[in-house]
Amino acid sequence: MDLHQRSLRVGITALVLALVFRLFDLGLPEKLAAWLVQPDVAAFLIYLETGRDVRFPSSEAVFSPDFLESPPAVSPLPAFSGDTPVELTNSSTKDPDISALLSEPLQWDLYADEPRVLILHTHTTESYTRSGETYEETAAFRTLDEDYNMLSIGSRVAQRLTQAGIAVIHDRSVHDYPSYNGSYTDARSSVEDWLEACPSIELVLDLHRDASGSLYDQLRTTVETAAGATAQLMVVLGTTYDTFEENLSLGLKLHAQLERQAPGITRPLQLRASRFNQDLCPGSLLIEVGAAGNTHEEALRAADQLADAVIALARGTQSAPA
User: Fold this and answer.
1) The pLDDT of residue 121 is above 60
2) Average pLDDT, stretch 114-130?
3) Per-residue pLDDT for 64 more than 70?
4) Dihedral of the CA atoms 291, 255, 222, 208 (nearest 10)?
5) How big is the CA angle at 294 (ends 303 and 275), to the nearest 5 degrees?
6) Residue 239 burial (CB < 10 Å; 0-12/13-18/19+)?
Protein backbone atom coordinates (compact mmCIF):
# COMPACT_ATOMS: atom_id res chain seq x y z
CA MET A 1 0.00 0.00 0.00
CA ASP A 2 1.57 3.35 -1.03
CA LEU A 3 1.79 6.46 1.10
CA HIS A 4 -1.17 8.13 -0.63
CA GLN A 5 -3.59 5.25 0.13
CA ARG A 6 -2.42 5.12 3.75
CA SER A 7 -2.96 8.84 4.16
CA LEU A 8 -6.42 8.56 2.61
CA ARG A 9 -7.48 5.77 4.99
CA VAL A 10 -6.15 7.62 8.01
CA GLY A 11 -8.05 10.72 6.94
CA ILE A 12 -11.33 8.84 6.43
CA THR A 13 -10.94 7.09 9.78
CA ALA A 14 -10.35 10.40 11.50
CA LEU A 15 -13.46 11.89 9.87
CA VAL A 16 -15.61 8.93 10.90
CA LEU A 17 -14.34 9.09 14.48
CA ALA A 18 -14.93 12.83 14.58
CA LEU A 19 -18.49 12.31 13.32
CA VAL A 20 -19.18 9.60 15.91
CA PHE A 21 -17.85 11.78 18.73
CA ARG A 22 -20.01 14.64 17.44
CA LEU A 23 -23.12 12.46 17.43
CA PHE A 24 -22.45 11.40 21.01
CA ASP A 25 -21.87 15.01 21.96
CA LEU A 26 -25.30 15.94 20.53
CA GLY A 27 -26.94 13.06 22.40
CA LEU A 28 -28.28 11.42 19.23
CA PRO A 29 -27.65 7.80 20.35
CA GLU A 30 -29.78 8.38 23.45
CA LYS A 31 -32.48 10.02 21.33
CA LEU A 32 -32.39 7.10 18.90
CA ALA A 33 -32.68 4.62 21.78
CA ALA A 34 -35.59 6.57 23.23
CA TRP A 35 -37.31 6.59 19.83
CA LEU A 36 -36.86 2.85 19.37
CA VAL A 37 -38.71 2.06 22.62
CA GLN A 38 -41.76 4.21 21.89
CA PRO A 39 -44.85 1.93 22.01
CA ASP A 40 -45.79 2.38 18.35
CA VAL A 41 -42.21 1.92 17.11
CA ALA A 42 -41.61 -1.07 19.37
CA ALA A 43 -44.84 -2.72 18.23
CA PHE A 44 -43.81 -2.15 14.60
CA LEU A 45 -40.38 -3.69 15.17
CA ILE A 46 -41.98 -6.75 16.79
CA TYR A 47 -44.33 -7.01 13.82
CA LEU A 48 -41.36 -6.93 11.39
CA GLU A 49 -39.55 -9.59 13.38
CA THR A 50 -42.39 -11.95 14.25
CA GLY A 51 -45.43 -10.94 12.25
CA ARG A 52 -47.39 -10.49 15.50
CA ASP A 53 -49.61 -7.43 15.85
CA VAL A 54 -49.18 -6.35 19.47
CA ARG A 55 -49.79 -3.35 21.74
CA PHE A 56 -48.35 -2.46 25.15
CA PRO A 57 -50.37 -1.53 28.25
CA SER A 58 -49.59 2.00 29.43
CA SER A 59 -48.55 0.61 32.82
CA GLU A 60 -45.90 -1.74 31.42
CA ALA A 61 -42.45 -1.08 30.01
CA VAL A 62 -42.14 -1.36 26.25
CA PHE A 63 -40.73 -4.72 25.11
CA SER A 64 -41.94 -6.24 28.39
CA PRO A 65 -43.46 -9.73 28.03
CA ASP A 66 -46.82 -8.33 29.18
CA PHE A 67 -47.89 -7.01 25.81
CA LEU A 68 -51.44 -7.53 24.52
CA GLU A 69 -52.38 -9.01 21.20
CA SER A 70 -54.12 -6.35 19.15
CA PRO A 71 -57.72 -7.12 18.14
CA PRO A 72 -57.90 -9.17 14.95
CA ALA A 73 -58.57 -7.26 11.78
CA VAL A 74 -62.15 -7.06 10.53
CA SER A 75 -63.44 -6.27 7.09
CA PRO A 76 -63.72 -2.53 6.40
CA LEU A 77 -66.93 -0.89 7.49
CA PRO A 78 -69.21 -0.34 4.49
CA ALA A 79 -69.99 3.22 3.49
CA PHE A 80 -73.59 3.35 4.59
CA SER A 81 -75.76 5.40 2.28
CA GLY A 82 -79.33 5.65 1.21
CA ASP A 83 -78.57 3.04 -1.43
CA THR A 84 -77.52 0.40 1.12
CA PRO A 85 -80.21 -2.30 1.05
CA VAL A 86 -82.05 -2.75 4.35
CA GLU A 87 -85.23 -4.80 4.34
CA LEU A 88 -87.76 -3.27 6.71
CA THR A 89 -91.30 -3.95 7.93
CA ASN A 90 -93.16 -0.98 9.40
CA SER A 91 -96.25 -1.71 11.47
CA SER A 92 -96.08 1.65 13.25
CA THR A 93 -97.67 4.96 12.28
CA LYS A 94 -94.29 6.68 11.83
CA ASP A 95 -92.65 7.34 8.47
CA PRO A 96 -88.95 7.99 9.15
CA ASP A 97 -86.47 8.98 6.44
CA ILE A 98 -84.60 5.68 6.21
CA SER A 99 -81.98 6.93 3.74
CA ALA A 100 -81.06 9.91 5.90
CA LEU A 101 -80.91 7.88 9.11
CA LEU A 102 -78.76 5.20 7.50
CA SER A 103 -76.30 7.82 6.23
CA GLU A 104 -75.84 9.60 9.58
CA PRO A 105 -72.46 8.92 11.22
CA LEU A 106 -72.45 7.05 14.52
CA GLN A 107 -71.44 9.29 17.41
CA TRP A 108 -69.96 6.83 19.88
CA ASP A 109 -66.75 5.27 21.10
CA LEU A 110 -67.10 1.80 22.59
CA TYR A 111 -63.39 1.52 23.35
CA ALA A 112 -62.92 3.04 26.80
CA ASP A 113 -62.14 1.96 30.34
CA GLU A 114 -65.71 2.59 31.51
CA PRO A 115 -68.51 0.16 30.57
CA ARG A 116 -70.02 1.14 27.22
CA VAL A 117 -72.35 -1.78 26.54
CA LEU A 118 -75.20 -3.17 28.62
CA ILE A 119 -76.67 -6.57 27.71
CA LEU A 120 -79.89 -7.71 29.34
CA HIS A 121 -82.84 -10.00 28.71
CA THR A 122 -86.40 -8.89 29.35
CA HIS A 123 -87.53 -12.47 28.66
CA THR A 124 -84.63 -14.17 30.37
CA THR A 125 -86.03 -17.72 30.47
CA GLU A 126 -86.67 -18.01 26.74
CA SER A 127 -84.93 -21.07 25.29
CA TYR A 128 -84.74 -23.11 22.10
CA THR A 129 -85.63 -26.52 20.69
CA ARG A 130 -83.67 -29.16 22.53
CA SER A 131 -81.22 -31.13 20.43
CA GLY A 132 -79.90 -33.79 22.76
CA GLU A 133 -79.59 -31.43 25.75
CA THR A 134 -81.23 -32.33 29.03
CA TYR A 135 -82.53 -29.51 31.19
CA GLU A 136 -85.73 -28.73 33.02
CA GLU A 137 -88.26 -26.43 31.39
CA THR A 138 -90.49 -24.09 33.38
CA ALA A 139 -92.82 -23.99 30.33
CA ALA A 140 -92.55 -24.90 26.68
CA PHE A 141 -89.33 -23.39 25.32
CA ARG A 142 -88.52 -21.72 28.65
CA THR A 143 -85.99 -22.67 31.30
CA LEU A 144 -84.17 -21.28 34.31
CA ASP A 145 -81.06 -23.20 33.25
CA GLU A 146 -78.56 -20.42 32.49
CA ASP A 147 -76.62 -22.68 30.15
CA TYR A 148 -79.56 -22.82 27.73
CA ASN A 149 -81.76 -19.74 28.23
CA MET A 150 -81.07 -16.21 26.97
CA LEU A 151 -78.36 -15.68 29.57
CA SER A 152 -76.18 -18.10 27.62
CA ILE A 153 -76.69 -16.04 24.46
CA GLY A 154 -75.86 -12.81 26.26
CA SER A 155 -72.77 -14.40 27.77
CA ARG A 156 -71.55 -15.39 24.31
CA VAL A 157 -71.96 -11.84 22.98
CA ALA A 158 -70.40 -10.32 26.12
CA GLN A 159 -67.41 -12.66 25.93
CA ARG A 160 -66.72 -11.82 22.31
CA LEU A 161 -67.03 -8.06 22.88
CA THR A 162 -64.80 -8.23 25.95
CA GLN A 163 -62.13 -10.12 24.02
CA ALA A 164 -62.20 -7.27 21.48
CA GLY A 165 -61.50 -4.72 24.22
CA ILE A 166 -65.06 -3.44 24.73
CA ALA A 167 -66.16 -3.10 28.35
CA VAL A 168 -69.50 -4.88 28.88
CA ILE A 169 -72.04 -5.20 31.67
CA HIS A 170 -74.17 -8.32 31.42
CA ASP A 171 -77.27 -8.01 33.58
CA ARG A 172 -78.16 -11.55 34.64
CA SER A 173 -81.46 -10.70 36.34
CA VAL A 174 -84.45 -12.92 35.59
CA HIS A 175 -87.26 -10.56 34.59
CA ASP A 176 -89.94 -12.99 33.41
CA TYR A 177 -90.14 -15.58 36.18
CA PRO A 178 -92.15 -16.52 38.14
CA SER A 179 -94.44 -14.04 36.40
CA TYR A 180 -94.18 -13.36 32.67
CA ASN A 181 -96.53 -10.38 33.00
CA GLY A 182 -94.66 -7.26 34.00
CA SER A 183 -91.34 -8.41 32.59
CA TYR A 184 -90.81 -5.16 30.69
CA THR A 185 -91.57 -3.14 33.82
CA ASP A 186 -89.10 -5.23 35.78
CA ALA A 187 -86.46 -4.93 33.07
CA ARG A 188 -87.01 -1.17 32.93
CA SER A 189 -86.00 -0.86 36.57
CA SER A 190 -82.81 -2.81 35.85
CA VAL A 191 -81.89 -0.58 32.90
CA GLU A 192 -82.56 2.57 34.91
CA ASP A 193 -80.37 1.32 37.74
CA TRP A 194 -77.50 0.48 35.40
CA LEU A 195 -77.71 3.81 33.54
CA GLU A 196 -77.59 5.66 36.84
CA ALA A 197 -74.64 3.60 38.05
CA CYS A 198 -72.80 3.71 34.69
CA PRO A 199 -73.72 6.84 32.69
CA SER A 200 -70.97 5.90 30.21
CA ILE A 201 -73.23 3.23 28.64
CA GLU A 202 -73.85 3.96 24.95
CA LEU A 203 -75.32 0.68 23.71
CA VAL A 204 -78.12 -1.33 25.32
CA LEU A 205 -78.85 -4.74 23.79
CA ASP A 206 -82.02 -6.53 24.93
CA LEU A 207 -81.57 -10.06 23.57
CA HIS A 208 -84.65 -12.24 22.98
CA ARG A 209 -85.61 -15.18 20.82
CA ASP A 210 -88.70 -15.10 18.63
CA ALA A 211 -91.60 -17.58 18.71
CA SER A 212 -94.31 -18.36 16.20
CA GLY A 213 -96.36 -21.47 15.53
CA SER A 214 -97.70 -24.41 17.50
CA LEU A 215 -96.02 -26.42 20.23
CA TYR A 216 -94.79 -29.00 17.70
CA ASP A 217 -94.22 -26.67 14.75
CA GLN A 218 -92.24 -23.67 15.94
CA LEU A 219 -90.63 -21.12 13.64
CA ARG A 220 -87.02 -21.98 12.76
CA THR A 221 -84.92 -19.35 11.00
CA THR A 222 -81.57 -20.40 9.55
CA VAL A 223 -78.88 -19.35 7.13
CA GLU A 224 -75.67 -21.14 6.21
CA THR A 225 -72.54 -19.33 7.37
CA ALA A 226 -68.91 -20.40 7.55
CA ALA A 227 -69.67 -21.80 11.02
CA GLY A 228 -72.62 -23.89 9.80
CA ALA A 229 -76.38 -23.56 10.19
CA THR A 230 -76.96 -20.26 12.00
CA ALA A 231 -80.14 -18.71 13.40
CA GLN A 232 -81.20 -15.47 11.79
CA LEU A 233 -81.19 -12.16 13.65
CA MET A 234 -83.89 -9.50 13.68
CA VAL A 235 -83.58 -5.90 14.89
CA VAL A 236 -86.79 -4.61 16.50
CA LEU A 237 -87.41 -0.90 17.13
CA GLY A 238 -90.20 0.76 19.05
CA THR A 239 -91.46 4.11 17.78
CA THR A 240 -93.69 5.51 20.55
CA TYR A 241 -91.11 7.89 22.04
CA ASP A 242 -89.48 11.08 20.79
CA THR A 243 -85.92 9.81 20.26
CA PHE A 244 -86.73 6.60 18.39
CA GLU A 245 -84.94 7.81 15.24
CA GLU A 246 -81.59 7.80 17.08
CA ASN A 247 -82.05 4.12 17.86
CA LEU A 248 -83.32 3.44 14.36
CA SER A 249 -80.20 5.03 12.84
CA LEU A 250 -78.06 2.57 14.79
CA GLY A 251 -80.37 -0.37 14.07
CA LEU A 252 -80.20 0.29 10.33
CA LYS A 253 -76.40 0.29 10.39
CA LEU A 254 -76.26 -2.88 12.46
CA HIS A 255 -78.67 -4.59 10.06
CA ALA A 256 -76.56 -3.49 7.06
CA GLN A 257 -73.32 -4.63 8.68
CA LEU A 258 -74.79 -8.03 9.55
CA GLU A 259 -75.88 -8.55 5.96
CA ARG A 260 -72.49 -7.48 4.68
CA GLN A 261 -70.58 -9.98 6.80
CA ALA A 262 -73.08 -12.87 6.47
CA PRO A 263 -75.62 -12.41 3.68
CA GLY A 264 -79.04 -13.73 4.70
CA ILE A 265 -78.32 -13.53 8.45
CA THR A 266 -81.05 -10.94 9.02
CA ARG A 267 -84.81 -10.99 8.93
CA PRO A 268 -86.52 -7.70 8.00
CA LEU A 269 -85.93 -4.94 10.55
CA GLN A 270 -89.19 -4.39 12.45
CA LEU A 271 -90.70 -1.00 13.32
CA ARG A 272 -93.48 -1.39 15.86
CA ALA A 273 -95.84 0.92 17.76
CA SER A 274 -94.26 0.02 21.08
CA ARG A 275 -91.58 1.34 23.43
CA PHE A 276 -89.58 -1.74 24.59
CA ASN A 277 -87.82 0.52 27.17
CA GLN A 278 -85.78 1.97 24.31
CA ASP A 279 -86.70 5.50 25.40
CA LEU A 280 -84.26 5.20 28.31
CA CYS A 281 -81.05 5.48 26.31
CA PRO A 282 -80.05 6.39 22.74
CA GLY A 283 -78.41 3.28 21.36
CA SER A 284 -81.05 0.83 22.63
CA LEU A 285 -81.93 -2.14 20.46
CA LEU A 286 -84.05 -5.24 20.85
CA ILE A 287 -82.55 -8.18 18.98
CA GLU A 288 -84.36 -11.43 18.29
CA VAL A 289 -81.69 -14.16 18.19
CA GLY A 290 -83.36 -16.92 16.22
CA ALA A 291 -86.67 -18.43 17.25
CA ALA A 292 -87.99 -21.23 19.41
CA GLY A 293 -87.61 -23.67 16.52
CA ASN A 294 -83.85 -23.10 16.36
CA THR A 295 -81.35 -25.17 18.32
CA HIS A 296 -79.23 -23.61 21.00
CA GLU A 297 -76.11 -24.14 18.91
CA GLU A 298 -77.65 -22.29 15.96
CA ALA A 299 -78.47 -19.39 18.29
CA LEU A 300 -74.91 -19.28 19.65
CA ARG A 301 -73.57 -18.96 16.11
CA ALA A 302 -75.96 -16.05 15.56
CA ALA A 303 -74.68 -14.47 18.78
CA ASP A 304 -71.16 -14.61 17.35
CA GLN A 305 -72.33 -12.82 14.22
CA LEU A 306 -74.10 -10.16 16.29
CA ALA A 307 -70.99 -9.51 18.37
CA ASP A 308 -68.79 -9.33 15.28
CA ALA A 309 -71.11 -6.73 13.73
CA VAL A 310 -71.04 -4.57 16.86
CA ILE A 311 -67.23 -4.80 16.90
CA ALA A 312 -67.04 -3.78 13.23
CA LEU A 313 -69.28 -0.78 13.85
CA ALA A 314 -67.28 0.22 16.91
CA ARG A 315 -63.96 0.09 15.08
CA GLY A 316 -65.29 1.78 11.99
CA THR A 317 -66.73 4.80 13.78
CA GLN A 318 -64.03 5.71 16.28
CA SER A 319 -62.88 8.47 13.96
CA ALA A 320 -66.37 9.72 13.13
CA PRO A 321 -66.69 13.50 13.41
CA ALA A 322 -67.87 14.74 16.78
Assistant:
1) yes
2) 97
3) no
4) -20
5) 65
6) buried
